[in-house]
Amino acid sequence: MLLALELSQSGMRSAMCYAKDTPMIEEEEKPNIGTIEVVGETDVDVNAVCEALKRCYDPEIPANIVDLGLIYTLRIEGGKVDVTMTLTAIGCPVAGEVMQQVQDEITTVPNVESCTVNLTFDPMWTPEKMNENAKWEIGWM
Question: What pTM, to 2 d.p., does this model score?
Answer without folding.
Answer: 0.79
